[in-house]
Write a structure and sequence with these properties.
Organism: Paenibacillus cookii
Radius of gyration: 14 Å
Protein name: Acetaldehyde dehydrogenase
Number of helices: 3
Strand content: 35-45%
Structural class: alpha/beta
Largest sheet: 4 strands, mixed
Distance between the termini: 18 Å
Strand order of the largest sheet: 5-4-7-6
Helix content: 10-25%
Shape: globular
Length: about 120
């Protein structure tokens, strides 16, 4: 998915995800995301109050969804850099550390491979 004339976004969100982000923001203030790489909560987008999850040199800012920054570890990014992350919402319990846990919905990452033209724009080719 592109935005504007030539911008290719590495992460986008569905309307349902944007609505949940806004609901969480109204309860918790500004939020941020980090794509979990496994462990306790599997591989899912985790939502935190802005600044609660400390990002560093080992993280990549993928973009923003609903005004919230979205990060992923550099190591994980190497596997995902040719795909666009599409953040969606499905029924169920969120990750135990993620803000949406009590909402009865959880964030889910879907993906699609960038076209060759999008890869060129992102300078991946």
């Amino acid at each position: 998915m592109t935005q504007g004339n030539s911008e290719v976004r590495k992460v986008v969100a569905t309307e349902a995800a944007l609505e949940l982000i806004e609901r969480l923001r109204s309860k918790h203030g500004p939020v941020m995301f980090h794509q979990s790489g496994g462990c306790c909560d599997g591989s899912s987008p985790m939502c935190f109050p802005l600044g609660e999850f400390i990002v560093g040199d080992s993280d990549v800012l993928m973009g923003e969804i609903g005004g919230a920054p979205f990060y992923m570890s550099k190591a994980q990014y190497e596997y995902w850099k040719f795909t666009q992350l599409i953040i969606d919402v499905v029924p169920g319990r969120g990750g135990m550390f993620s803000l949406e846990g009590p909402e009865g919905q959880r964030f889910l990452t879907r993906s699609r491979v960038f076209t060759e033209e999008e890869q060129r724009r992102l300078k991946l080719l």
